[in-house]
Fold Alpha-galactosidase.
Amino acid sequence: MQDGSKAIFIPFFIVIRWNILRIKLKSPQRSIYDPSLAGRRSTTSFPTPPQKDDDNSSVSYVDNVTGKVIVPGASSYNGLNLVPQMGWDNWNAFQCDVNESLLLNTARAMVDYGLRDLGYQYIVLDDCWSIGRNESGYLVADHTLHSMGMKFGMYSSAGIMTCARYPGSLGYEQKDADLWASWDVDYLKYDNCFNQGQSGTPQISFNRYNVMSQALNKTGRPIVYAMCNWGQDSPFDWAYGIANSGRMSGDVSDTFNRPDSRCPCTESIGCSWPGFHCSIMNILNKMAAVQSRTMSGYAQDLDMLEIGNGGQTDSEYVVHFSMWAINSSPLLIGTNVLTLSPANLAIYSNPAVIALNQDPSATAAIRKWRYLVNPDEFGEGEIALWTRSLDNGDQVIALLNAGNASMMMNATLNDIFLDLRTAGAYQAPPQLDEIWDVYDLWANRMSDAEAAAIINGTSMTVTDNTNGTVTRYNATATSYAQGLMNNDTALLGAKVGSIGPMGTWSAMIPRHSVGLYRLRQRTSDLRKRDEL
Ligand code: GAL
């Protein structure tokens, strides 16, 4: 948590004299942040191809510049964001209509609604911030955000202008990074517009984004670096070494599956024009091929959440939240928190689902199968099984029905553990012979009445996790990883059955809905008793 004594002062003249200040500001004499001191990799060049490390037999890489052996994914390039960032960003709901009180009032509501303590800590000011000033010249006056236990995010573009045509940072990276560090900024979202043609190959994009990565490190301030290049030039292959998250698609829109010609790609591989107006299903399916590139310290960003913006049904928003969560996407609330409905607060607040997102494995889910069925008025309809292994051996399954009719859907243990088969000669993994208890992660969704009481300020405050509630959780008091070790019931949903050896989990899933379950291996003692 940030030191509340530090202030964020953003004088008005800096806004209107942005370009002049770039010339006038001297680089502060700060200590140089050296990633190697923290055992992190240097990021000045591409790594050489994978090599076998004879000592520990794990796949490792030798950094071209330092000669150090590093293990990709073992940790973050700068030590930050080992699990995906959570917070709020104004863009989806407000675009350029931002001001100081919106940010501060949103932050206050997030504290009051328990959202901060569920992990939503970053308040990210998106594009157009240079007009969001108050009369006395301060954007975010004094230390208010940090003293609320929130962190402060800013936005710029790796181009000469931002997407809304405000000054960008291309060519001014170090000056801008130093300025943000002097404002105690904790997070940078870095866009891709007006990049002067500096894209088209992975190397060109890497070089452009790496300049800001190095600049942020040099400030000496820990700043989460959220790349927003929309998946252009395959960041899946190079961004883990220079950033903490990277957008993998064109911009999200508040629609479940409506195709839109402005979002022309249906696959992330080879997509040269990511565009915008991408639906939830479009973005989700683009994750399937590149999911292996999500790792601790580098989250693939499916874009900000649309829950609350009105374009989808309740069950579609549940799909959106569930699939973003299990894919370890950053969870950035993208709606007006001040007018949040109880139903939408209940979705954003489900601790059993957030625990999947914040799992230390920090991996994305695997789409094990997908069939095109039951098309709707847009000609879209499909069902899919997504699965993921969690840090403690638990499994996640998502039975996703994006078709236009209810369906009985099945997940076999064989599908769930497909990847544990031995390559070459098939050997059945031992997990197939176990009993798995099944926990429905939406079964304990808080009621609208409980969510309304939170919004009205008439509910209890969750200061720790000894309150016996299954609907609420305070991750500031107890981390999700610790809560899982404690078997905190708020993180487990409700047990709804089990899968026997070689068995199948079957559930009726309504149209445009998901069945989201955590599977936990039954202990051998229990199993013996079961078999008697
Ligand atoms: C887009 C970006 C959006 C938003 C917008 C602001 O490129 O993907 O998330 O930041 O620019 O203009």
About this structure: The longest helix spans residues 202-219. The CA atoms of residues 159 and 197 lie 9 Å apart.
